[in-house]
Write a structure and sequence with these properties.
Strand content of chain A: 15-25%
Shape of chain A: elongated
Oligomer: homodimer
Strand order of the largest sheet of chain A: 2-1-3-4-5-11
Largest interface: A-B, 37 and 37 residues
CATH class of the largest domain in chain A: Alpha Beta
DNA sequence: CTGAAAGCGCTAACAC
DNA sequence: GTGTTAGCGCTTTCAG
C-alpha cells in the first residue's frame, strides 16, 4: 500500500505528485513558486493540491531549509502599565506588519516571572524561530546573552544594556533618539528664555530614562542637582516628582518631563498649586501619545517618536540580519550599526 | 569529513554519539529519558551533551514524532486587554502553568484585524502547534470552523457559539457556569426582598452575556422589558446603562450587573444620583475581580469565577484531547462533554 | 542494554 | 522543464 497521506492524516507531497502525474520536485517547485515549471504542470498540481487539501509540513521543510519563517517577540513586562500605553500597541503593530509583509510570522513570548526566562530559553533553543525581537529590556536583562549563547539572531529596542560583552554581531539594536529628542526639548525651553529649567526623569533602570537625562545634561551641563528629580514613568510618579521639585525649587520656570504620562501628573500638581502653564512654568513631555498630550490642559508640547515605524524598523533589521546569517560567514564582518529613529518636537500649548 | 555540527552550526546527535563512543540510538534514549540505558552510558552522554552544548533539533524531532509540544493560544481581542483585565491575566496564568507542567509551550496569537484570521490559519496549518486554545470567541467566530477544517485539536472557552456544525469531537469547550452564577445572584437579590430587580447585561454578541441574562430570566421569567438594559462590559457602558435604567425605571431597587467593571460604573452613577447602596438599590456584579470588587464603595457583592482554574482546565482538556487524537481512532467515540466550572456568590456590602 | 537500519516529508543539486 | 538522488537530524522498530 502506498502512502497517500501521512500518519497524521494529511496528504504528502508524494501523494500530490502521484495524483498529478509528476515528480515530487515538480510539485515542490510549484508550491514554492519557482519559475521553471510548465504552465500545464502548474495547473495540474494546483488542482490536486486543492482537491487533496494539501498543506506542506513545515517541520520537514524547516529541517532542510533551516528556516521556520517565524520570529519570537519576547516581551519582558514587569510593569503592565507599558501596555496601556498606546505607544506599545503601535510598536507591536509596526512589527507585525513588517514581519508579515516579508513572509514571517510573529510569535509572542512573555516574561512575567523569573522562571519564564528558562522557558523562553528552552523554546528559543528548539529551533522554532529564526530570530528574536527583544522588547522592553531591563538593565542587565539576561535575554541578550541568552540569544547570543544560542547563536540566535536578535534585535533589541533600546540602547545596549551595560554588559561586559564586547561588540557582538548578533546583538543589534534599534532605538529612538532619546538623547537627541531630550536635547531638542530642553533647548526649546531655554530658547523660550527660561532660566530655571528642571527635569523629571524616568525610572533610571531603563536606558530610555538615562538617555533622556543625558540629553538634558547636554544642554544644561551645570544644572543644579536639585533641578533633577527622578520619576518612574507613571502619572502619580510624575505628580510626586513635581511636588518635590516645587518644594526644593519654588522658582522653577520650566520642566522637561521624560514621559507624557508623568507630564500629565506634573501638570495636575502645577494646577493644584496655582501655577499657570506655560506662563509661570513651561512644560515639555516625551512620547507624544495623542490620548494624553492632546487631552491635557493645556495641551502638551512634547517629543514625538514614531512608534509604528520603530517597530517596522526592528523587524526589518532582524529579518535582514537573519538573511545575513543564513548567507554565511559574512556575519563576522557585519559592522555593528545601531539604528536610531529620529524624534521631533511637537509644539502645543504647554511650552 | 564527518559532520560534527549541522550546517546551522549546532552539534547533532551524531556528533554526540561519536564523541561519547555510543550509537545515535543510545544518545537519543538518554536525551528522552528512556530507562533501558546503562548508568555508565548515561553519564558519558550527558557529559558530552554539556560539553558540546547539544540541543535537539525540534524540527527533526517533530517530523518523526508528529508533535511539537507547542500549543497556540489564540486571542480574539486587542492585545492590551490582556494586561488591563485581571480576569484575563489570571486565566492566562492558569493556562501557562498547566501547559508548562505538562511539557508544552504556549504561543500567543492575537487577532486584532480581519486579515489576522488568514494569518492565524496559515500559522496553524503549518504544523507548528499540536493544538489550539481559542479564547474570547465572538458569536459566529470563524476560528472553530478553522481548527475543524485543519483537523487541529482545539478547546474554546465559552459556550459553543451558534453554528450549524453538528457535534464535532474536535470542538471542545470549557466554560464558567455563567447561567448558574447569574441565577444565584438574582435569587440572592430576590431573597433580600427586592421587588424591582433589573439587570445590566454584557455585550450580547458574547455568549457569556447571553448566558448571564438567561440566568436572570430563569429566576425572573416575567421581568418587564425595561428591566433589562444592554451594556458592553466596560465601566462607562455600565454607567450609561445604569443611567438609562434609572430614567425608565426610577423605582428599581436592585440590579444584577453582568460584570464587575460595569458594576463599578453603575455604582458611580447611583452615587451621583444620590441613591444609597444597598439601602435604596442593591447591586450584585459578576467576575469577582478583587481589584475592583473590593475597591468599590461599598465593596461589591459579586459572583466569583476561578479564572486561573478555568485556564488550567482549558489547557488540561486540550492536552488530553491531543493525546486522545494521537492515540488513534478512539477520537470518534469520545463523547462530547463540555466542562463547566462552578461559580459562587461572594457576599460583600453592596447587596 | 545497544546498534543497525529505515524512514518522517521535504528541498536542492544534478542529470537528463 | 522535469525527474532522480541525496540527505536535513531525529526516533524507532528490530535484531542481537
Amino acid at each position: 500500500m502506498t502512502t497517500d497521506r501521512s500518519a497524521a492524516g494529511r496528504p504528502t507531497l508524494e501523494a500530490v505528485a502521484r495524483r498529478a502525474g509528476v515528480s515530487r520536485s515538480t510539485v515542490s517547485r510549484v508550491i514554492n513558486g519557482q519559475p521553471a515549471v510548465s504552465p500545464d504542470a502548474v495547473r495540474r498540481v494546483r488542482e490536486v493540491v486543492r482537491e487533496l487539501g494539501y498543506v506542506p509540513n513545515q517541520n520537514a521543510r524547516s529541517l532542510v531549509t533551516r528556516r521556520s519563517d517565524t520570529v519570537a517577540v519576547v516581551i519582558t513586562e514587569p510593569q503592565h502599565r507599558l501596555f496601556v500605553d498606546p505607544y506599545f500597541s503601535l510598536q507591536q503593530h509596526g512589527i507585525r506588519r513588517e514581519l508579515v509583509e516579508r513572509g514571517s510570522y510573529p510569535v509572542l513570548l512573555f516574561i512575567e516571572e523569573p522562571e519564564d526566562y528558562a522557558r523562553v530559553e528552552d523554546f528559543l533553543s528548539r529551533g522554532h524561530v529564526d530570530g528574536a525581537l527583544l522588547l522592553s529590556l531591563r538593565a542587565d536583562d539576561p535575554l541578550p546573552d541568552m540569544t547570543d549563547r544560542l547563536a540566535l539572531p536578535a534585535v533589541c529596542v533600546g540602547r545596549r544594556p551595560p554588559s561586559g560583552r564586547a561588540e557582538s554581531d548578533r546583538y543589534l539594536y534599534v532605538n529612538s533618539d532619546n538623547r537627541g529628542g531630550a536635547r531638542e526639548a530642553v533647548r526649546h525651553l531655554v530658547g523660550l528664555g527660561r532660566r530655571a529649567v528642571a527635569t523629571i526623569t524616568g525610572a533610571m533602570e531603563q536606558t530610555a530614562a538615562v538617555d533622556r537625562l543625558r540629553g538634558y545634561r547636554d544642554v544644561l551641563p551645570d544644572a543644579a542637582p536639585e533641578m533633577v528629580v527622578e520619576g518612574d514613568f507613571t502619572e502619580a510618579g510624575g505628580a510626586a516628582a513635581m511636588r518635590r521639585l516645587l518644594e526644593r525649587n519654588p522658582d522653577v520656570d520650566a520642566v522637561f518631563v521624560a514621559s507624557d504620562l508623568m507630564a500629565a501628573g506634573a501638570l495636575r500638581v502645577l494646577r493644584e498649586r496655582g501655577r499657570r502653564v506655560p506662563e509661570d512654568v513651561a512644560v515639555v513631555g516625551f512620547d507624544d501619545i495623542p490620548a494624553i498630550a492632546e487631552a491635557t490642559d493645556p495641551p502638551l508640547t512634547t517629543v514625538n517618536q514614531d512608534a509604528e515605524e520603530l517597530g517596522r524598523l526592528m523587524a526589518r533589521t532582524l529579518l535582514d540580519h537573519i538573511a545575513d546569517c543564513a548567507a554565511g560567514e559574512a556575519v563576522d564582518r557585519t559592522p555593528f550599526t545601531p539604528v536610531i529613529m529620529p524624534t521631533r518636537l511637537v509644539h502645543r500649548a504647554s511650552a
